[in-house]
Amino acid sequence: MSARGASAARILGIDPGSLITGYAIVDADGAGTATLLEAGAFRLKRSDALSVRLDALSTDIHELLAEHPCTHIAVESIFSHPEHVRSALQLGHARGVVLVAAQQSRLQLIEYSPAEVKKAICGNGRATKAQVQSAVTMQCALEKAPTPSDVADAIAIALTAGRRFVSRG
Predict the structure, then answer these.
(1) CA nearest neighbour of 54 among 81, 24, 16
(2) Can you say whether residue 32 is alpha, beta or left, with left for phi > 0 and alpha for psi between -120 and 50 degrees?
(3) Choosing from 27, 29, 60, 150, which is the catalytic residue?
């Protein structure tokens, strides 16, 4: 069931970043319906060393999971363009924190490519950030588009996982 009853899965979608990490929590009913429960962003201090930011991100994720116990964590796989190697490395560090948090919390990990998420949410694997924001705004009946775009991306990741979740019970 969705928000009205017990969910088959509660999924934390994460859009990792070394400065801003978007998150979203959805309940999935196992029949293709996902209901958004909460979304937001962890903002890390640019002035802090990367190791300090990663530690803060880990703490933030564990505190969120303590407040909202989940069964799964969904995250995008890394896509790297040769012109963006440095940002891919930074993303990889933050993504590693998410993977460790999933393992430490004994949560099932779900991974999708960015193109899979965009296709699932927008119908176009090459959708822009603005298109993803617009799609999640409409699909979740939000009053305004989630900002920053990292939050919209996290919602898209969580919705994709929730809609593809099939109950085995």
Answers:
(1) 16
(2) left
(3) 150
Q: How far apart are CA 64 and CA 73, in angstroms?
A: 12
Which residues, in sequence order, are CB contacts of 112 under 8 Å at separation 6+? 74, 76, 77, 120, 157, 160, 161
Q: Are 40 and 139 in contact (CB under 8 A)?
A: no
15 catalytic per annotation: yes
- Write phi, then psi, for 40 (nearest 5 degrees): 180, -165
150 part of the active site: yes
Q: What is the pLDDT along the chain (169 residues), one digit of tens a residue?
A: 234 456 799 999 999 998 999 999 999 998 989 999 999 999 999 999 999 999 999 999 999 999 999 999 999 987 665 666 777 787 899 999 999 999 999 999 999 999 999 999 999 999 999 999 999 999 999 999 999 999 999 999 999 999 998 765 4
- Residue 76 catalytic? yes
Considering only the top CATH level, what class is 9-164? alpha beta
Given the residues 15, 29, 60, 153, select the one marked as catalytic.
Answer: 15
Whether a cis peptide bond, with omega within 30° of 0, leads into 148 is: yes
CA distance 34 to 88: 29
Whole-model pTM: value is: 0.92
Catalytic residue among 27, 29, 60, 76: 76
